[in-house]
Write a structure and sequence with these properties.
3 domains; alpha+beta; single chain; 7 helices; Jelly Rolls; 448 residues; Immunoglobulin-like; 6-stranded antiparallel β-sheet; 5-stranded antiparallel β-sheet; 24% helix
Amino acid sequence: MDAQSEEQWAYSVGIQNYVFGLPLTILERERTLRLDPVALEKAKAYAPAAPINQIGHMKTLATADDVMPYTPNNDTVYSGVSLELRDEPLILTAPDIPDRYWSVQVADTYTNNVLYVGTRATGGKGGDHAFVGPNWHGELPPGVIEHRVPNNSMMAAIRIGVVPNDAADLAEVNALQEKFTLTSLSNWSDPAKHGQATAPDLGPRPHYEGDLAFFQTVADLASENPPAPGNEAAVELLRRGGITLGKPMDVNALSEPMRKGLARAAVDGPQVMSWKVKYRGTPYPTRWNNLEPGTYGVNYLDRAAGSLEGLFVHDRDEAEYFSTYEDGDAALLDGSQKYVLHFDADQLPPTLANGFWSITMYGADFQLVKNSINRYSIGDRTPGLTKNPDGSLDLYIQNQPPAGHESNWLPSTPSGQFRLNYRIYLPTGDAKDPATLGKYLPPVKKTN
């Protein structure tokens, strides 16, 4: 009986440590990809991938032909970079972009948001921004803005708003993407070397096999990038699960019940996260879920879900995210049915200048849905979107064109379950307050 109880205790600890450590393994997946030239070249087809300390660009909006390891939006083009700051700071140079939405979102190794540059955060001003690791000491050049970050391993996402199916607008955005550069501090004094960044010598990490490989990997990653102050309870739980920061995990030192319990947790952890990804966030009566923002604190379960589905997630001031699998009567959304999403005039969400909102269609695989007009999202930037005479708005969500309402049509799957994501970029006032944003979440209603 004692052995069984110890195994159950280890299982409980293991599930919590799986949740805590999952974001570390997600970023390690991205890092490993960028260190493999063959895999990296393949990844460039579906992600803004580039070698470590280089900016990768996607030059088009995501489409149904893309199969991505995260839920793509159809609102912005992406650029991205995997940062390694062990040797020296890196300076990101961003252009001024005053007339459209853009953001640079920087997240730590645990996928917590650390800082923003962009439309909201810096008033559309770019500039020279130095990302400085926790152990670097020195002076930065004049005019370079210092951002001291908690880990040497980081990731950044650059998003720039683009009007769907507008080739001229996309060309303008592509030109803006090329104005973002990354420069090693050691290259900054030579203007000819601006835009050139070196990467540390990152040798392969240990590769583990067996039932406890996940936890052994987490031990290495957490030792390299220790949790920030405020996570002491989680660090203690890691220790109780055999992970002591600064040391490889010694699985041979564990009792047999501990090994069995942790092994079960390693198997069940992915199932727990699959459930959480589907039912993440705060539910509202109209069946929309408001996803948790990306500065998580000790909300490790939502942090893990965010890293698994979206890599890293915006804060409320930057964007609100909602999703639903259900209509207003709690029936699962199905492509064989027809739906209307009706916004009264005062339900249309308010945004800052250059902000916008959209509704995006996803299939059961979390990817965009093929359709005859190549429309994957609909929102206030959709050309030809037509409001009713009283200022209200009806969006028609179905597989076949709605006669007379084609301009307001979001094509759905031919049949089977689908999901809708609702995004509000740069929300203001009530639209970003969890206590009041329900006003802007009308139910999806079945019409047949």
